[in-house]
C-alpha cells in the first residue's frame, strides 16, 4: 500500500514521529517544522558523527528536540485538538 519498501520505511518513520508528538501532547506540525529547521544546524555535532559512522547515537545533544522536552520550551504548542473535539461534541449533544 506504500508503493515500495523504501516508501514504506519513509512512511513508517513519519508515522512514528507523528505518533510520538501526539503521545507527548505536542502539536505535530509545529514540532516537525522546528525539528526539520534545527536538524541541519546539528550536523557538526557528536550525534551526527555517530550516525554517520553507523554507530548508535548515544549523544544527549539532540535530547532537547524530543517531543516532551521540546514542549517544555514551547508550551504554546500543546496539542489541543482533543479538547476542541470534545467541546464540539458536547455542543451537538
In short:
The chain has helices spanning 5-23, 28-38, 46-52, 67-73, 81-91. The protein is an all-alpha fold and 93 residues long. The chain is flat, with a radius of gyration of 17 Å.
List the helices and strands and how they pair.
Blueprint: H1 5-23, H2 28-38, H3 46-52, H4 67-73, H5 81-91
Descriptors for this entry?
single chain; 5 helices
Question: How would you characterize the overall build of this protein?
Answer:
The chain has helices spanning 5-23, 28-38, 46-52, 67-73, 81-91. It is mostly helical and 93 residues long. The mean pLDDT is 90.
Write down how many β-strands occur, each being a DSSP E stretch of 2 or more residues: 0
Structural class: mainly alpha
Into which percent range does the helicity of residues fall?
55-70%
**Helices and strands, in N-to-C order?**
HHHHH
Summarize the main sheet: none
Form type: flat
The total domain count is 1
The share of residues in extended strands comes to: under 5%
Low-confidence spans: none
Terminal-residue CA separation: 38 Å
- Name the average pLDDT: 90
Q: How many helices does DSSP assign? A: 5
Radius of gyration: 17 Å
Amino acid at each position: 500500500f506504500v508503493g515500495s519498501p523504501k516508501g514504506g520505511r519513509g512512511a513508517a518513520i513519519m508515522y512514528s514521529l507523528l505518533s510520538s508528538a501526539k503521545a507527548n501532547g505536542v502539536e505535530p506540525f509545529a514540532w516537525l517544522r522546528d525539528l526539520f529547521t534545527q536538524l541541519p544546524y546539528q550536523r557538526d555535532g557528536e550525534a551526527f558523527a555517530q550516525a554517520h559512522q553507523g554507530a548508535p547515537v548515544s549523544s544527549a545533544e539532540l535530547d532537547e528536540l524530543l517531543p516532551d522536552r521540546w514542549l517544555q520550551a514551547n508550551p504554546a504548542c500543546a496539542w489541543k485538538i482533543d479538547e476542541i473535539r470534545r467541546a464540539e461534541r458536547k455542543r451537538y449533544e
